[in-house]
Every structure is written in C-alpha cells, then in structure tokens.
Amino acid sequence: MSRLDKKAVAKEIDRLFNLALSSEDELLKRSAIRHAVALSRSVRVKIPKKYSLFICRKCLSLLSSSKSARIRVRKNRNWQMVIRCLTCGSVKRIPLKR
Ligand SMILES: [Zn+2]
Questions:
Q1: Ligand 1 centroid to 94 CA: how many Å?
Q2: Which architecture does CATH list for 1-52?
Q3: Fewest CB atoms less than 10 Å from the CB: which of 2, 20, 37, 72?
Q4: Distances (CA, A) of 30 to 2, 5, 23
C-alpha cells in the first residue's frame, strides 16, 4: 500500500466521521462509522484520537450526545473520564493527563 493511498483513506475516514457527526440519522451514523472502522483496519490507518474517543468499541455507536453516552469525570488515583455507552452498557475509562 502506497503512501498516497493511506492519505486518501485517512481523508475518507475523516469524511465519514464528519458525516456521522453531522447526521441525525442513526442508521447512517452507524454505517458511516462501521465503514470508517473497517477501512482503518484494512489499510492500517489509525482513526484520529479525537474521533476514536467517541466510538464505543463494543457496538461501534457514536458517543457524541447525552442520549447515547453518559460521561463522568472521576478521581481514583488519577483523574479519569468514564464514558458509558447507553446502547450496550460498556464502560470506557480514559486517563486524563494534566
Ligand atoms: Zn456500545
């Protein structure tokens, strides 16, 4: 796979996420994200962190609204952001750096 192709795929992934984020249609959102994830896996292009934070790894739904996710910030040993997917119930913990 050439470098140009990776660039094109990265662009396409970006486009798909923009589409998913701006759409109101749940079905379209899902298929756009599923497509982006499949692309990134097949070409080994990483999904940008700003997007990957807001995808549920289990059911691939977008955790962008208060309807689809519950976000809490907690302090155990370190500060962390806890995101619970309201679609499948999986919990994702993201350590917060200061
Ligand atoms: Zn989920």
A1: 15
A2: Up-down Bundle (1.20)
A3: 2
A4: 29, 24, 10
